[in-house]
Amino acid sequence: MPDMKARALKRAVSSARGTPFFMGHALAQYEKFHKIESDRLAEWLGCTPEAFAHLALCRKPNDTEDRFRNDVRRIAEYIDCEADKLVRLLREVSSISAFKEENPPEEGGFLMAARDRRDSKKIPSRGSSQNGSDQKDES
User: Fold this and answer.
1) In whole angstroms, what is the distance from residue 77 CA to residue 70 CA?
2) What is the mean pLDDT of residues 9-26?
3) Judging by beta carbons within 10 Å of its beta carbon (0-12, 13-18, 19+), is residue 95 exposed, middle or buried?
4) In the chain, what is the straight-line distance between the N-terminal and C-terminal CA atoms, in Å?
5) N or C: which end of the chain has fewer CB within 10 A?
6) Please, are residues 3 and 35 in contact by the beta-carbon 8 Å criterion?
7) Which residues contact residue 57 at a Cβ distance below 8 angstroms, ignoring those fewer than 6 apart?
8) Could you give the dihedral angle defined by the CA atoms of residues 63, 68, 74 and 75, in that order, rounded to the nearest 10 degrees?
9) CB neighbours (10 Å) of residue 79?
10) With 80 as the cut, is the pLDDT of residue 116 above it?
11) Helices H, strands E: what count in the chain?
């Protein structure tokens, strides 16, 4: 019977890791960003592997709501892990996810910052003229 419970828990956690509603999704994202294993993340959060599995099944608090810290603290008390580290994890995952695009642009898939580039053959530098065309008319 305990083996059946362990398999069911493992399946539930696996499903939660792929569903943004659950903490498991945030944990999976954090592991991916930092290239770490679940057991190492559980250790960092200060919880047992079994508690970590139960953490994955909790609803992920909305970091845009006023009650976010309170919700995280309640989860941390229930799971028995470090609330401050859990807040940091969720904020980081939220920030990184905000920069990722689900549907990248067709042209390469990256957003690029604009910058000035001066090519002496194409763009004149400030104060210089090309063929004397921007000189003032003195008549």
Assistant:
1) 11
2) 94
3) exposed
4) 100
5) C
6) no
7) 12, 13, 16, 22, 23, 24
8) 0
9) 25
10) no
11) 6, 0
Report the phi/psi class of residue 36: left, alpha or beta, with left for phi > 0 and alpha for psi in -120 to 50.
beta
List, in order, residues 6 or more apart from 97 with CB less than 8 Å away: 29
Burial of 110 (0-12, 13-18, 19+ CB in 10 A): exposed
DSSP reduced 3-state for 28: helix
pLDDT in tens, 63-114: 889 999 999 999 999 999 999 999 999 999 998 888 775 545 554 545 555 5
Cα 123 to chain center, whole Å? 39
Q: What single letter denotes the amino acid at residue 61?
A: P
Binned at pLDDT 50, 70 and 90, residue 23 comes out as very high
Q: Cβ distance 89 to 45 under 8 Å?
A: yes
